[in-house]
Inverse folding.
């Protein structure tokens, strides 16, 4: 097994990520920063374990990860849990000869179950709240990549949490919501008056509605969506009105777009091929045209720079469409764990 690194404490929440296990599912480790588990990048977990006289540190780690109530209620990937616990045991055995029964018992619980097609990711927010998502265990499932969370969604969510005034008391339309991480984080921390999640694929929409309800938000009826799941809103009357809409960028009409009446438009990680770039610019053009006569909405598009040519195509097409843009300054990536060396950006568009 390749070594699984545990990231440094980031803000009020510490998250473990198993990038080397073929899975990116997360276990919350809220409060571990108070335990001073890491001081700097040179301090290893083995050194901390070597300095501890008993099993207290490992027991705390267990309680903040696989035994955390959020993970017990909404289990992460079985493969991730096995990888995480195996690595924790390896580090423990490297410095202590006395086995810790609780570690082996936790591993035994995840050795037999088969990996399901769905599992959960849970993210801890600075407010103390959390976002939990049901996601596919496969990067591509049902012919779509929209059933998992991608880094640009995390990056845009982190920027939104740092800039809540951009969304407060406003109607937000998200294009290509996927699993829903960005929108749920905005709904829980930025006080929008209304939020419209949108996507095209039927499986993505079904999972998205479930994730909205899983996080205690209720759904407003939408004429373009199938019958809604019964939901109960656990938030107060100031909770945003949430809609999940089916939106095909290539066929949606100007009146349909105008009906959303957005004050803010966002999209994350939707620039993955030239065809989607062209479709996105066309729908942005239609939004700009149908909203003339009212205050122009703010628009933010976040993306991971995988292929510079695709990004250049996007900015070139924006120019040809007469849509000015500017790069949003990079912000520190402290809240969420990201893929190593991922280059991300956010553009603010002037519609």
């Amino acid at each position: 097994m390749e070594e699984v690194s545990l990231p440094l404490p980031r803000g009020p929440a510490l998250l473990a990520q198993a990038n080397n296990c073929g899975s990116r599912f997360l276990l919350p480790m809220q409060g571990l920063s108070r335990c001073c588990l890491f001081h700097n990048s040179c301090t290893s977990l083995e050194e901390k374990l070597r300095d501890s006289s008993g099993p207290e540190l490992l027991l705390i780690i267990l309680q903040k990860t696989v035994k955390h109530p959020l993970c017990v209620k909404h289990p992460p990937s079985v493969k991730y849990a096995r990888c995480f616990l195996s690595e924790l045991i390896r580090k423990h055995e490297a410095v202590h000869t006395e086995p810790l029964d609780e570690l082996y018992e936790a591993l035994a619980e995840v050795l037999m179950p088969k990996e399901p097609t769905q599992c959960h990711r849970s993210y801890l927010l600075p407010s103390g709240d959390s976002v939990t998502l049901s996601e596919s265990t496969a990067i591509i499932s049902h012919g779509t990549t929209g059933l998992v969370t991608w880094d640009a969604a995390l990056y845009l969510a982190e920027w939104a949490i740092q800039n809540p005034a951009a969304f407060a008391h406003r109607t937000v339309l998200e294009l290509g919501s996927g699993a829903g991480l960005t929108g749920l984080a905005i709904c829980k921390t930025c006080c929008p008056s209304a939020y419209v999640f949108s996507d095209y694929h039927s499986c993505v929409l079904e999972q998205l509605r479930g994730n909205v309800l899983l996080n205690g938000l209720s759904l407003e009826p939408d004429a373009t969506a199938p019958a809604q799941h019964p939901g109960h809103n656990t938030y107060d009357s100031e909770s945003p009105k949430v809609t999940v809409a089916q939106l095909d960028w290539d066929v949606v009409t100007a009146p349909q777009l105008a009906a959303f009446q957005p004050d803010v438009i966002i999209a994350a990680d939707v620039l993955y091929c030239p065809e989607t770039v062209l479709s996105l610019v066309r729908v942005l053009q239609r939004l700009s045209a149908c909203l003339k006569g009212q205050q122009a909405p703010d628009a933010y598009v976040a993306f991971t720079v995988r292929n510079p040519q695709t990004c250049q195509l996007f900015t070139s097409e924006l120019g040809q469409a007469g849509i000015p843009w500017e790069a949003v300054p990079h912000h520190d990536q402290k809240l969420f764990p990201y893929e190593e060396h991922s280059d991300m950006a956010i553009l603010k568009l002037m519609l």
